[in-house]
Amino acid sequence: MREILAGNGLGNDSHVIGAPTREQQLRCRQQNKPLFSLSRARLQQTWAETSYRLQALRDNADCARQEFETIFDDQDPGLQPRLSFDPGEDITLPFVHLHRPKVAILREQGVNGHVEMAAAFERAGFDAVDVHMSDILSGRHTLEDFTGLAACGGFSYGDVLGAGAGWAASILFNPRAREVFETFFKRSDTFGLGVCNGCQMLAQLKELIPGADHWPRFTRNLSEQFEARLSLVEILPSPSILLDGMEGSLLPVAVAHGEGRARFETVEPQEVVKQGLVSLCYVDHYGHRTETFPYNPNGSPQGVTGLTTRDGRFTIMMPHPERCFRTQQLSWHPQEWGKDGPWLRMFRNARVWVR
User: Fold this and answer.
1) pLDDT tens digit string along 232-261?
2) Of 72, 150, 229, 264, whose CB is crowded by the most CB atoms within 10 A?
């Protein structure tokens, strides 16, 4: 860099004033004489305190405090992904050239995640078909020709009726749509994925989905704000066909929701975890399941953020794996990761299951 500056006539005007270290201390010296020394945490606390005070007034005060207190952890290792599989292994190779099964990329007014979702399934060997709810309601599509269904993220009806409630109601209270979806869910050769708004919607269709009686509703984030972050989740052992072979991994993933807090109405969350029906949990930078903000961006109990049916065919989750199935989509990732991100395995698992 200094050579570039010198080559542009700025050599005499540029000076090295410091260098980063692994110590949690800022030190200033002049001719090796100490002038100033203070901890990183103390300086960052001073810098951030005004924002913290405003956040505590505007948002949930406990969440604001929890986020402020993360400043004081001098040992925080940051995001620490852990893989239990090789993302570069294309497990679809024996099947991908045989045929391209159809997956319905389902959307409603206000949904905005359908393009990324279609791209992820296409990359895994599916024929992704754009299906709007108006296609179902009018009878243009019946889902008979589809093996998979992906309910996408966004803000159906602007969320004015609550998280996915309007979308779910358009199915539950429309005889044609209800029959189409119930028939699809009960077929033994189908699978489904609900992400974010699609997760909220499918959770409210659980009466139509075999083995989904334990699914919660999703309500307003505990922080009382829309949260868009790169979070770390743990993939738990579960029957989910989409997460097969990924158990034990800690993966960064995009989150973007205002109503992602799981609220269990008929069963305790720890019981669902114990039954092995929770597929994803938020974890902190030490890999521990957490309810602490911002590691858990919505306050879900037990860190729950993904669930599956008892037979594993249908999986719902609040994070957005379709937004980071390619490594370069992540705002940060380990340098050794190749072009195929770890989340692509989820879509490839679906293709292998279909065969």
Assistant:
1) 999 999 999 999 999 999 999 999 999 999
2) 150
- The CA distances from residue 294 to 71, 154, 223, in Å, are 12, 21, 9
Residues 343, 251 contacting (CB under 8 angstroms): yes
User: Is 171 in a helix, a strand, or coil?
Assistant: helix
Inform me whether the pLDDT recorded for 91 exceeds 90. yes
Instruction: Indicate which residue of 257, 281, 322, 333 is catalytic.
Output: 322
**What pLDDT score does 95 carry?**
81
Out of 152, 320, 324, 333, the active site residue is 320
Rounded to a whole number of angstroms, the distance between the first and last alpha carbons of the chain is 53
Structure confidence at residue 18 (pLDDT): 87
Task: Please state, in angstroms and rounded to a whole number, the distance separating the CA atoms of residues 105 and 2.
Answer: 52
Total residues found in the chain within this entry: 355
Which of these CATH numbers, 2.60.40.1180, 3.40.50.1820, 3.40.50.880, 3.40.190.10, describes 102-354? 3.40.50.880
Contact 321, 120 (CB under 8 A): yes
Q: Where along the chain do the CATH 3.40.50.880 domains lie?
A: 102-354
Q: Write down the pLDDT at residue 13.
A: 87
DSSP symbol at 329:
G
pLDDT of residue 301 exceeding 90, the answer is: yes
320 is an active site residue: yes
Confidence at residue 193, expressed as pLDDT on a 0 to 100 scale? 98
Catalytic residue list contains 322: yes
SS3 251: strand
Choosing from 63, 196, 199, 324, the catalytic residue is: 196
The per-residue pLDDT for 77 is: 93
Q: What are the tens digits of pLDDT across the range 122-137?
A: 999 999 999 999 999 9
CA atoms within 13 A on the CB side of 7: 4
User: Residue 161: is its pLDDT beyond 80?
Assistant: no
* DSSP type of residue 232: E
Judged against a pLDDT cut of 80, whether residue 96 lies above it is answered with no
Task: Return the ∠ at Cα 162 (arms to 230 and 183), rounded to 5°.
Answer: 95
Active site residue 196: yes
Q: Which residue has the tokens 């358009």?
A: 170
**Which DSSP state fits 41?**
H
